[in-house]
Structure prediction request, 380 residues.
Amino acid sequence: MKGMRKIKRGKSFAGVVRYVLQSGAHHKSDPIVIGGNMLGDSACELIAEFDSTKHLRQDVAKPVWHNSLRLPDGETLSNDQWVTIADDYMKRIGFSDTHLRCYVLHDDDGQHIHIIASRIDMAGGKLYLGRNENLISTRIISELEIAHGLTVTKTAPSITPKQQKRRKVSRNEQMLSERTGLPSPKEALQQILDKSLADTPDLLTFIKRLEEAEVGWTANVASTGKMNGFSFSYRDIAFKASQLGKSYSWANLSNRLNYDPDHLEAMQAIKEAIPAPAPAPAPAKDVATTDIPRESISEKIAELELRLREDRRNEIVEKILQKNAIQQKKHLRLSSWFPFLQRLIELLRSYGKSILHKPHPGFSKLYATRLLHKERKIHL
Prediction:
């Protein structure tokens, strides 16, 4: 069984619905709607139902999703078999039961069905994104051939799970992590979020896990009630989703959650119902700090670096003072010899000697000496 080389997306449901229901000379029988989850089966009814989903998300430019599943030449299936296979295919590729879709059977040289679906969920307007869907579709078709006992046509290449895109930590954050021996606040928060999203929890379970991990969160909800994402805080540092990486933006985060729009109201009610934690008994200074706005990570790092520079400066000043103190001790020790030298000079003078007159080292003999006059004073 094969699908389209490239799954098609479009703006207008009218064009694709009329195309797949249009009879052709190559058809053995007229195309017919054999399944799906829609009420009508005529072109006008299907178009009207599909168009009703466009009003839920007017920001979506291409709400139309179109693919086909084709059997090898000469093989056929019953309508019920086709519906079972198509339902299984749509579930595996990521559509929910509340995404409108219809299956149209074409019986010609190679029996096949066309699947038309709206990417906008009827229950809440969640959008099917379908990243890498062409490669994923090939793998799913191979799985369906085995699961439903069909002719195996081609084995799809295996798909390795894509690592979530995180924003790298800055050089300052890396240096801080090396100093403390702990992950930086950004890196620790990314790990907590990935762990909390590992099993695709619903919205309420997700925020419960955040609170257990002591992660603060704020839901960014537009005035229209549309969910735009989260902002977080960890270790008294505030983070926007854009600071953490693309995988934490709402467009990607919603795919990692089992998102139900009904939970949004419950989440807001929980947030309002949770009282602000009462401050523990502490000095007035600590209580006042609760009103200080949260610092960004760059400000926090700058503050830590300033403290390190001040500590280093104080250390250098202390060493200089110690060195000066040692030199001062040496100077005092030398000064203590001055009275002794004064007495020595006076003693030598009483014997007619002086430490100021010495024979020149170049003379071999001394022919005459002259005594100092007693009344003559020598000032040192």
Notes: Residues 156-163, 276-280, 285-292 have pLDDT under 50 and may be disordered. The CA atoms of residues 98 and 129 lie 15 Å apart.
